[in-house]
Amino acid sequence: MSAEAEIERVARLAYGRLVATLAARTGSVSAAADALSEALVRALETWPLRGVPERPEAWLAAVARNLAADAGRRARVATAAVDHLVLLEEERADMGEAATPDRILSLMFVCAHPAIDARMRTPLMLQLVLGLDARRMAGAFLVPPGTLGQRLTRARAKIEAARIGFALPAADDLAPRLAHVLDAVYAAYTVGADGDGAGDAKASSLAREAVWLARLLAAQMPRAAEAQGLLALLLYGEARRPARTDAAGRFVPLAEQDAVRWNAGLVAEADLAMARAAAAPSLGRYQLEAAIQAAHMDRRHARPTNWTAIAGLYRGLVALHPTTGAKVGLAAALAEAGDTAASLAALDAIDPAHAAGYQPFWAVRAHALRLAGDRTGSAAAYNRAIALTADPAVRSFLVGRKAGLGA
Questions:
Q1: Buried b / exposed e across 60-97, counting CB within 10 Å, b at 16+?
Q2: Rounded mean pLDDT of 194-201?
Q3: pLDDT, tens digit, for every residue of 10-27?
Q4: Which pick of 60, 197, 360, 400 has the fewest CB atoms within 10 Å?
Q5: Residue 402 domain-assigned?
Q6: CATH number, position 350
Q7: What is the domain extent for residue 372?
Q8: Backbone dihedral angles phi then psi of residue 245, each to the nearest 5 degrees
Q9: Is residue 48 part of a domain?
Q10: d(CA 43, CA 64)
Q11: pLDDT of amino acid 86
Q12: pLDDT, tens digit, for every residue of 62-75?
């Protein structure tokens, strides 16, 4: 592995841990993130020439810690930072490995503090915990990269200005802030899963990191039903990843996937998380979304998909969390259940401004119109869906479905 590839690997896997550790020491998220960014630049400058250190993550931590300690002497301290590696390792041993999850969770809850603009809590977590830059997040949040970058800078400054402590919130404040933390993890998984199909080389690792964070939250908060629901939701998605394309690389929609290819271990883990969520006297968005995915998993037992039941779950989801995605999901389930008229009515009820650039809306509309016998309308909807599709395999699938209209 080249030095550049190793730097990218370590940065992707350890970014959140390093920022959390540095921020806990300095009390400044901005200083921690800036120091780590400069440490990564130093690694790019030195590792290709001198070789990859034996402990790459510790090297980055040592350099970043010293850079953060005295910004005025960054160049000299960065060179001397490797000499402090042994001391850093001793300090890490004293902290114990169990401290790391707590620090990462604390950092995530810092980003979810009420003092932070609600619109920026999720992107701020994605930046500080997973190292995503504004360019990669801009599409997911429908904000130009430059604008998002400026807002992130202001949000980071707000953490210091509001003197937000690096500790888990009290019980009374935990639930509302947990919702934002869960949304950030889900957004990270969505960005990773979508990017993976579109050819983003970093996307698979991002999806895996999101699953790791979901596992961390579920383990640290076993009685938080929504944390368990989110873990189940992501695990069901990961379990189906191997069946998403066939041997030739062609996209296979969920209803046509070979259930034998689903990862049985991940499905079992998801089922267990669902059982833990069900034990709590509450119901939330992620529990409902996971229940929908669990209903699809019935095909593992040679049972047909119960689309009527899935439509019922989507109705509950729309009532609880009326997003465009939930409404489109309901329309898709209604179409598969045989109620094409209700499916099209559900699509027509969606705000056109929200539907215009949302690829799943047009893909579902094309399918529903096809079932209704409207070939012209279906072809037009397929054209919109194809134009909005970044994943080559999905685009090829949609092109094939449109071509089939004339058969």
A1: bbbbbbbbbbeeeebeebbeebbebbeebeeebeeeee
A2: 56
A3: 776 667 667 777 776 666
A4: 400
A5: yes
A6: 1.25.40
A7: 331-407
A8: -130, 155
A9: yes
A10: 11
A11: 38
A12: 888 888 775 534 43
